[in-house]
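The aim of this short unit is practical: by the end, you should be able to scan a pair of folded records and say something sensible about each. We start with the first protein, listed as its amino acid sequence and then its structure tokens.
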Amino acid sequence: MTELYIDADACPVRDEAYKVALRIGVHVHIVSNGARGLRVPEHPLLHQVIVTEGADVADDWIADRITARDVCITQDIPLAARCLEKGAAALNSKGRPWTHDNIGGALAGRAVAEHLRSTGQTTGGPAAMTQADRSRFLSTLDTLLLAAQRGPAPRMRIPPGGF
């Protein structure tokens, strides 16, 4: 059964994710390092998980449980990479899927930004959410959850000598 994991502490699209997941009928794990004012609606498919404070505790909780049939919403690039390694789908809050093709560049860019910040340089944050971002998020999440429910795509076997 497909489940949705939300890295919730800094997720601006939780409400949108709930709507899509409930319409499709998948369990949602809303994972955070503390209640921090998160309001999770009462529903049997919505499960709030509050982990202990600490670096990467929420990420570890998600990465330890996610499977190839699941989807994760996260802005955290290393967590997205861990989800992809387990065969799961990962999506950022602006509706852009993390993939094996883009995660390496994102990890490298994150490392460069961390280095620049460590030297005292100011780096810009992400651009503000737009209505187009929210619309893309809703559409992409719907697509990813429905695809995950169908299961992993079958691997095509190429006969010796090609087609």
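Turning to the second protein, read its sequence before its tokens, just as you did above.
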Amino acid sequence: MGVLMQAFYWDCPKLENQEFQWWNFLKKKVSSLGKVGFTALWLPPANKAANIDGMSMGYDPYDYYDLGDIDQKGFIKTWFGSKAELVELIRTAHENRLEVYADLVLNHNSGADADETNPIDGTKRWTKFNPKSGKFSRNWKCFHPSPYETWDDMVFEGMPDLCHRNPQVYTELLEYARWLIEEIGFDGFRYDCVKGYGGWMIRAIQELRGIKDEKGYKPFGVGEYWDSDRSISDWLDETNTWSDNPVAAFDFPLRYRLRDLCQVYGYSLKNLTDGGILMKDAPSQAVTFVENHDVVRNDPIFTDKMLAYAFILTHEGYPCVFWQDYYTWGLGQEDSANGIAALVRIHEDYAGGSTTVLHAGDDLYIMQRNGYNSQRGLIFVLNNRGDWNGVSVQTQWKNTRFVPMAWRGRNDLNAPQEKWTQEDGCADFWSPPRGYAVYVPQC
């Protein structure tokens, strides 16, 4: 399915000294990311935001069609740059075989030009929007309570809550998604705060047939449903019913299991074989991750984070790498077998097919990816002990040489030895202390 890079984090333009230049800054990274094996970029919301308390990350949308080319809300550019710079970033990404996903904030708006009294409940709200783009003007009927629907599932931080059952709102959001695909060049969407509105709205966008290169195009989509595995699965069922382009979801339950793997003393690796995570229940719809711009601010992983990255980049699902982990905190290590970059390359070249767990104990976990087409499969070893650890397992490969391509241990970066399987497919595979190793077959 590829590997996704979340190409931002909270307040990144300021913290990276790239205010109003983030699109240009990302453009310089695109070539190297493509060479490593990344296949897509997830960008922050590109629309002009309310900017009420200073520059915003875009999750408080005001003018959807102002991508940094209209003088309003204090600036012409967004915090990330101009529309022309965004289009150029997308063009460069496509030249390097990377797709680009837009972050769509459809639940709420902010920064209205005037307040209005909603006659349904007699309450004044800031719901009069007259954006200078001249597109998607809004009034109280576009928000809850509306003549078309009183309330939906969630109000976010007191911002006016869009009513998607209003035909105007529904039509405008579909048109906006089409515009982002056809005219700006995006390839798909990350849907923010999907708990807040009906899955049918997302299904409608997923079923759009944008035209690219004179051919119909199905956008990729992944929803942020921050909840339990059961709730996420129910949402996927609701949203994807009768859809010919199903949306995926972020695997939050897996993320918290990986947090415990990295940080809880004595964590049993047997837990990694349990259900209750999207990666096992619906791997084709699971976007797996270790950190994102939200969880890293309130519940970050501080210890042995590479164990989690080794897990998601060898297992099924669509793995997403966090910008700060890769760049800021130095885990990318593009010229090393000990970092994320080596795991990305392995994911693209070898991590195909279904998964077979060959061994699962409290301190040792060994998994086989069975391979599919040109991706030949791999052996992944995870060690929760303070010394080297391994065991003999029976693989599907007979009389085959295995070479370690990625590994890392706590205070031990020594490479594991090559292995040969016997006539029955058996060999002993080892991992460094409190670490991992990935072996690939030489067929």
